[in-house]
Amino acid sequence: MEERISSAQNPKVKRLLALQEKSSLRRETGLFVVEGRREIERCVASGFTVDTLFVCPEIAGDFAAAGKVFELSRGVYEKVAYRGGTEGVMAEVKARHLSLENLQLPENPLVVVMESVEKPGNLGAVLRTADAAGADAVLVCDPLTDLYNPNLIRASLGAVFSLPVVCCTTPQAIAFLKERGIRILTAQLQDSKPYYGTEMTAGTALVMGSEALGLGDAWRKAADAHILIPMNGIVDSLNVSVSAAILLYEAVRQRNINMLL
User: Fold this and answer.
1) I need a surface site. Which of 108, 110, 203, 244 has the fewest CB within 10 A?
2) Over the stretch 125-165, which tens digit does the pLDDT of each residue have?
3) What do you get for the CA distance between the two ends of the chain, in Å?
């Protein structure tokens, strides 16, 4: 340990809090905060570099670490911890950003595209589902939240680190998919047919829009097919993470059946 910090007024503690709260500071410093033993381990396993580690020994016990490590008193840790039950460890991690030019996809990829999603928790939940379904990449178009928002990291359970995730514009994403012959399936209510009648075994991009506005016209025009999830009750939409789960696992079902034939 480099030193023990017992005051919430310590500059390192103030920066730790600010990195959690301000996306502008995350962009400026190239750092973000990861909280919890599981999330930090998944972050490191995915090739990210920890810049500084903060440990509360009263909570974490023996936590092997190298590099810049600061000890936090229990009182300070409880003030900076974004959530409870995170095993007494937090880290400032160096951000990295994958581009479309560097994105490598297999044959017949399964890609998730999210346009202008506003809520970090929803985007994190989509990443968690995409990881579980074995999606090959997630494209986040015209994002209204950054990938290293603490709510997003928490909701993804670390999938934001292991999945290839690219932030780009809608025109860039459409051009990327068209150049590679990946079919664009847009989830929308208008001029659509049920998702289970649409073939998803070839290269497929499942495209979903924001919670408030849905998909923009550019995606509707670029689509190879418009699909919908039938709504048989009084509501006309599902949470975007639920919609993503339904569509992703339909693709998984079709691909698994195709492998058995």
Assistant:
1) 108
2) 999 999 999 999 999 998 888 899 999 999 999 999 999 99
3) 58
